[in-house]
């Protein structure tokens, strides 16, 4: 949140400043004024002189008289409200933030302020506290603003910003989450709310919160750019091995979120390291066609030279690999063969082999179920894909499975 200058605070308060004499005897019949204040005679006499002094630019003299009025023993709360309001005029004219704070706090203490003016006053106090880096004071005012307008998502979001400045990330995340909840109930939620929540969670190792906020972000704003941002952040924080990274790259590809040379090259290289030349070649070819990769780069040309000769042999071996997998005592060969089928785009066969791998066991079930869900989803069987993906529990794999499920549901 940017610091709030005196001028910004003054603008917040401009609608409650007194611009016409409060002691005017009459208002024109055609334009009736608000009811005149009921002031005690001693205070009314002083305030009339104060307004004359303010009109002449004598704010020092006006302030002396205002303090005299405050010192009167029988001044009522309504008297004090108008004393402080005229003090507010002098504070604004002289750009005196300390006096501005006194005038605003004094007005609130009278208990005579309207609900609308209380919002303006507390907004000003929050701004003054932020300006002086009094984050505890700013948080107090932000909390009161939320209490005054519990259905105002913006007030909740501004409370979160104060908590951020105060170095309270969990409280900040909670306030943004509430802002999102309130926003959903009343209409659309600004994208910045989701971005802020996701960044707070990511920067402060709040993994469960990042999963929730990023899913909400993608659900509300499912652009290719946002998919890339979320998945890149997720990949960086998940610390996957090649197997997990490969499944993230696959989702980035399907979501149209591969955007750079690095994206395409790392995907192709990872597929090659996992023994999936067909998939690696497809990504290299796509990267070249889109101008993201170039054979003028030695590393791209070398990877292409390694991958291309393997593709036909790999595809020709699928039948024998499948036969061996069915005879095997455990599911390891079936999982490898399922990966090979998936890499060549044969999703029905891949799903069959993944189911066999899960049935035989001795494999990582989370990986197998993730890929079973991917194969089923790509084949158009969204219901069974959801069952497989929802069965993935624990760690970053569970969140990855949920991202895949979101993608399939979005694309449905």
UniProtKB/TrEMBL annotation:
SUPFAM superfamilies: HCP-like (SSF81901)
InterPro entries, per the entry: TPR-like_helical_dom_sf
Superkingdom of this protein's organism: Bacteria
Signal sequence, renumbered to the chain: 1-24
Keyword vocabulary terms for this entry: Signal
Name of protein: Tetratricopeptide repeat protein
Species, as recorded: Sphingoaurantiacus capsulatus
């Amino acid at each position: 949140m940017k610091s709030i200058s005196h001028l910004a605070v003054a603008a917040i308060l401009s609608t409650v400043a007194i611009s016409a004499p409060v002691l005017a005897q009459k208002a024109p019949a055609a334009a009736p004024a608000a009811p005149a204040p009921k002031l005690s005679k001693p205070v009314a006499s002083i305030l009339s002189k104060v307004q004359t002094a303010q009109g002449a630019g004598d704010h020092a003299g006006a302030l002396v008289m205002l303090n005299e009025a405050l010192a009167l023993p029988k001044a009522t709360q309504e008297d004090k409200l108008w004393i402080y309001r005229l003090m507010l005029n002098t504070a604004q004219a002289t750009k005196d933030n300390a006096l501005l704070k006194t005038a605003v706090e004094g007005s609130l203490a009278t208990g005579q302020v309207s609900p609308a003016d209380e919002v303006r006053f507390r907004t000003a106090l929050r701004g003054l506290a932020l300006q002086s880096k009094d984050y505890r004071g700013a948080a107090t005012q932000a909390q009161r603003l939320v209490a005054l307008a519990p259905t105002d998502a913006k007030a909740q979001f501004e409370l979160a910003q104060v908590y951020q400045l105060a170095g309270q990330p969990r409280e900040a995340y909670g306030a943004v989450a509430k802002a999102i909840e309130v926003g959903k109930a009343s209409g659309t939620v600004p994208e910045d709310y989701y971005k802020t929540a996701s960044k707070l969670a990511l920067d402060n190792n709040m993994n469960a919160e990042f999963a929730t906020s990023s899913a909400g972000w993608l659900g509300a704003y499912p652009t290719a750019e946002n998919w890339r941002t979320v998945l890149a952040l997720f990949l960086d924080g998940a610390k996957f091995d090649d197997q997990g990274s490969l499944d993230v790259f696959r989702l980035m590809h399907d979501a149209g979120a591969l955007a750079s040379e690095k994206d395409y090259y790392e995907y192709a290289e990872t597929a090659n390291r996992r023994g999936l030349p067909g998939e690696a070649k497809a990504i290299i070819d796509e990267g070249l066609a889109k101008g993201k990769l170039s054979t003028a780069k030695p590393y791209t040309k070398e990877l292409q030279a390694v991958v291309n000769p393997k593709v036909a042999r790999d595809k020709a071996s699928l039948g024998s690999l499948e036969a061996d997998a069915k005879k095997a005592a455990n599911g390891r060969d079936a999982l490898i063969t399922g990966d090979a089928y998936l890499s060549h785009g044969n999703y029905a066969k891949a799903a069959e082999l993944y189911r066999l791998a899960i049935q035989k066991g001795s494999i990582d079930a989370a990986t197998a179920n993730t890929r079973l869900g991917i194969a089923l989803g790509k084949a158009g069987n969204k219901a069974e894909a959801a069952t497989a993906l929802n069965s993935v529990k624990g760690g970053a794999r569970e969140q990855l499975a949920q991202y895949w499920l979101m993608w399939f549901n979005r694309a449905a």
